[in-house]
Amino acid sequence: MKPLRLVLHAFGPYPGTQEVDFERLAAHGLFLIHGPTGSGKSTLLDAITYALFDAKTVERGGAEFVSSLEPGAVTSAVFEFEVRGERYRVVRSPAQQRARKSGTGDLVAVPADARLEAIDASGALVRVLADKATEATRQVEALLGCTVDQFRQTVVLPQGQFREVVTDDKTRREVLARVFETGRFADLTGRLKRIKNALEARASGFREQRQRLLRAPLAQPDLGEVGAHQRLHQRRGEIRLVLHERRQQGLGAGEVVHRDVEFAEHGLEVDLHLRVVGVHALGDLGA
Fold first, then answer.
1. What is the pTM of this model?
2. Containing H/E element for 82?
3. Alpha-carbon Rg of the chain, whole angstroms?
4. Whole-number Å distance between alpha carbons of 268 and 262
5. pLDDT confidence of residue 253
6. What is the pLDDT of residues 102-127, one digit of tens each?
């Protein structure tokens, strides 16, 4: 948010109309609001907070902003500001007693009121965004992306509360999350945590299943190393017999069939090796 202009009417210690042109001051870079104690420095900051939000959210309350120096005058605060290149004006007045328009008789009770407007660079009205106090406050919160408490912790920090924002981890996290709109990252973190928990649950189930299998009694293998060797030799004999018959019949076994026999023998040896390894592995597990 960029402050542009603040106009106060019979506001607190300021009688009449007072105007602060922040846009003109900002043209010189940094500027300082200074003065002796009680000169109204904090009132300017309270007026900005009050104009943006409502009477109940300001430390002293809106009713106390009604100037006693000008009885019957209408107290109000007008604040113009810029957000993301768009200009806005909020006009807010507390519940108060004002003089009758006729100028005679008792004072008239006026309820609190507020209005939020979109304006152009010249300050001319473009459209009314809200014409009720609660709706204006809600719209301002949406525009600024923060509540009044967070506004007072990041933009207008009251004296003596700086340490709370710096040292309180929860407060700092909430303020930064709202100001920098990190909600989408929090949602992503939540989704990743849920996926992580689901994968860990599946992994835990697999581990439990493995433990059950390891604890279960193992069936004795029906093929030992000696028996496997015997089957290998038997199979070699069968293959060589087939090769001999093909040669006798002149079926052209030749080198091709010889390679087929070697390939078959190699396959049997691999099969034997795997079975022997499996027997030993099962024996180790059983031990």
1. 0.56
2. strand 76-83
3. 43
4. 10
5. 44
6. 666 677 888 889 999 999 999 999 99
For 121, other C-beta atoms within 10 Å of its C-beta total: 8
Instruction: Compute how many other C-beta atoms are within 10 angstroms of the C-beta atom of residue 155.
Output: 16
Q: Pick the closest to residue 127 from 97, 88, 169, 153 (CA basis).
A: 88
CA distance 33 to 17: 18
Alpha-carbon distance of 278 to 287, in angstroms, equals 14
Using a 10 angstrom Cβ sphere, with 0-12 exposed, 13-18 middle and 19 or more buried, the burial of residue 125 is exposed
The residue among 166, 140, 137, 134 whose CA lies nearest residue 153 is 166
Contact between 3 and 48 under an 8 Å Cβ cutoff? The reply is: yes
Query: Which are the contacts of 151, defined by CB distance < 8 A and separation ≥ 6?
Result: 49, 52, 53, 144
**Can you read off the two tokens belonging to residue 259?**
């390679």
**Pairwise CA distance, residues 79 & 70, whole Å:** 21
- Identify any residues that bridge with 98 across adjacent strands, giving them in sequence order: 108
Mean pLDDT within 164-178:
69
Q: What is the per-residue pLDDT for 280?
A: 44
Lowest mean pLDDT among 39-48, 91-100, 216-225: 216-225
**pLDDT score of 7:** 96
**Residue-wise pLDDT tens digits, 77-87:** 999 999 999 99
* Polymer length of the chain: 287
Q: Is 88 exposed, middle or buried (0-12, 13-18, 19+ CB in 10 A)?
A: buried
- The one-letter code for the residue type at 98 is R
Q: Residues 163, 157: contact at Cβ < 8 Å?
A: no
